[in-house]
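re: that complex we talked abt at group meeting.

here r the seqs, copy pasted straight from the sheet so there may be weird spacing, ignore it
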Amino acid sequence: MFKILEKRELAPSIKLFVIEAPLVAKKAKPGQFVILRIKEGGERIPLTIADYDAQNGTVTIVFQEVGKTTRELGTLEAGDYIEDFVGPLGVPVEFPNHKKVLGIGGGLGIAPLYPKLKMLHQQGVEVVSIIGARTAEMLILEEEIKTVSNRMYVCTDDGSKGRHGFVTVVLKELLEQGEKFDEIIIIGPPILMKIGSEITKPYGIPTMVSLNPIMVDGTGMCGGCRVTVDGEIKFACVDGPAFDGHKVDFDELIKRLATYKEEEKISLEIFNKAHGCKLINKIEGADKDAVK
Amino acid sequence: MPLNRSKKKTPMPTQNPEVRRRNFSEVALGYSEEEAVSEAKRCLQCKKPGCVEGCPVQVQIPQFIKRIAERDFEGAIKIIKETNSLPAICGRVCPQEAQCEKNCVLGKVGEPVAIGRLERFAADWERTRGSHPPVIPKKLGKKVAIIGSGPAGLTCAGDLAKLGYDVTIFEALHKPGGVLVYGIPEFRLPKIIVEQEVKFIQQLGVEIKTNMVMGKVLTIDDLFEMGYEAVFISTGAGLPKFMGIPGENYLGVYSANEFLTRINLMKAYSFPNTDTPIKVGKKVAVIGGGNVAMDAARSALRMGADEVHIVYRRSEEEMPARKEEFENAKEESIIFDFLTNPVRIIGNENGWVKGIECIRMELGEPDASGRRRPVPITGSEFIMDVDTVIIAIGTGPNPLLTKTTEGLELTKHGYIAVDEEGRTSREGVWAGGDIVTGSATVILAMGAGKKAARSIHEYLQNKKWQQ
Ligand SMILES: Cc1cc2nc3c(=O)[nH]c(=O)nc-3n(C[C@H](O)[C@H](O)[C@H](O)COP(=O)(O)OP(=O)(O)OC[C@H]3O[C@@H](n4cnc5c(N)ncnc54)[C@H](O)[C@@H]3O)c2cc1C
Ligand SMILES: Cc1cc2nc3c(=O)[nH]c(=O)nc-3n(C[C@H](O)[C@H](O)[C@H](O)COP(=O)(O)OP(=O)(O)OC[C@H]3O[C@@H](n4cnc5c(N)ncnc54)[C@H](O)[C@@H]3O)c2cc1C
Ligand code: SF4
Ligand code: FES
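got the structure back, here u go
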């Protein structure tokens, strides 16, 4: 059992938990994730380690309520317990000799972007960041990103904050102006990572994306999380989740994410009936959060 | 005591195939006392029993059968448990036809004694009465770590705990049992049985820590730093293999591991009462010919598929699955396509499977395994319409732990290299079960756990590590 020490609402339907998990916190590195199961009978879902504190033995997760399990998670409060919390999983990311990096986070993708930029910043790397959301109130972790960036751009789809438009517009501009980066990190919905990678490819700038396929065990045992990278099958849970964006088959990933669409709907409807569905409209909008 | 001279095994009642193909309850229902006694009376009590030699852990077979014939069921289970700590499991899943029963003299003129069924009977007899709480041994004050809670790990843990060691099992999943809980389905091995065995081992004082993906959360070096004096690695061979043919990532294509894990461990059969979904279409093809393929096919049927095919590139004779499970599968109307090999999976515009292209095979010269090699017949390609494909062509070693352990020697296929006692190239580290042998059997994994426990005990008494 793992205790929720702190709960914060970052935006409508986006929540942050600080979880007591000393062993995970001790080994966690940027780029890694956990798998949790709320209770017996629950699904195992992967969530990125958004921050960690080895000394206090805590791990921070940020999640968006998109379906049954994340909604149920959102109903828990500080002081409640989560049955299973496994990690740190996946391969940590490393940036050995980088001098300047561009980090792009769309919607919820800002959360997994944060620990990477934080590490880069601590290493003394020059960090430029572009973060975006559908609308101002859905923008998360702006302050945190700002403190680890030398320069930050904010975009919203509806223009309610920062630049009016998608994060990819700013990306294009920077590249067209001839700005150089050792690496570009793009995290967000698969469609954003796909389009972003297409934009950076002609410039030959290494582009890292973090993939979010459906997972079960997270240990390489089921193969459900397989993605095609450079024509080869990779298991995102043990070989990733970070991959070279220029080599990922995003269309396949997007299709595979829809495998259980019908079942997810049934699950959510049953849950909503039992819990009232005041959040529903917002959640549906939230899906289209980032960027085309 | 009069012998029972029947040439045939006393039949064991099973659920009617028409009914059971749609439920997950156990297929075989077990002997009644009368049936067990009658079957036990078929045993000739050989002076030089071949059966015992065939048993990987040398259960004293004629002795326990004699007790059953005398209605001393308690005596029978006691004898079995001297060498086999998981008899309710082994009695159900051991390939007896290739082990003890294969060597039984009665097999020369008729059917062998139903040793497996008798073992199961004795174990269930005790189980349903509640076994005696184990005597907790005097503690030696020495800590041993075991990685993985399949049959190898559980057995090693049990044996060491009985000797007085403080044993901790570290398990990656949220539930202990290994393949026994995530792989082998309920209708062959009810989970309650595994749970009881796990509970027994806990009563012996073994601590089981779940959610511990070793190599990630802790390394073997961490374990030694934490004061563990010996480590036994029993992480199984859980990495699913794919075929490397086009279309394997279409929606509706599963590895058998994923398919069975969703059903067994995550209870997808209760969806939406439980949260993990699974997609089983109308027409399912399972690729492979082992126990895993049988289990996947029979599970697919129980999840509601109309038609389930097993597509196997060799012929019936070469099929590695247990005979009994093959028969059960046929009775449940699973269709077998022998000498058939998939060459690609075909999908629709949304990425869902709609068929597989297969090619017919014929048997050529024997290959390295001694089985005749299947060779494709040119021009025999055809398309099979299916909407779900389950790939059950085997598994390999998972490198998650081994690659974080320095100085651990592996074989060229990535399994852990050990000596006869189960010792690895690292002092204080043993390994056994599928992570050493590749996918094998429950009883061999158990045997490896036992052997390692003996060797660990010896080492911890004198701390001598010489190979
Ligand atoms: C490595 C990784 C890191 C992730 N990090 C975060 C994060 O930090 N914050 C966050 O909000 N989300 C993250 N996700 C996505 C998150 O796991 C899913 O949103 C969550 O599983 C949805 O579950 P649900 O029951 O609420 O919704 P559902 O209704 O089940 O599904 C909604 C969507 O989530 C996807 N999904 C469903 N089940 C799974 C599963 N078992 N594994 C992965 N995806 C699934 C589906 O494709 C669907 O599009 C991450 C995913 C991966 C693989
Ligand atoms: C579907 C199926 C049907 C089968 N049917 C039969 C049968 O009828 N009869 C028979 O005799 N055999 C059968 N087998 C084979 C048999 O189950 C295995 O040979 C046996 O379980 C091997 O035992 P083990 O202890 O070595 O490993 P496993 O049972 O595989 O257990 C390994 C355990 O280690 C854990 N683990 C792995 N990596 C880590 C890590 N890094 N950290 C912590 N824990 C880890 C795993 O989660 C797992 O719980 C079947 C196998 C399958 C898959
Ligand atoms: S070989 Fe057969 S008949 Fe002989 S002791 Fe063993 S089980 Fe009995
Ligand atoms: S989640 Fe099962 S192998 Fe990656």
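couple things i noticed - Chain B touches chain A through 41 residues (CB under 8 Å). Chain B is about 35% helix and 15% strand.
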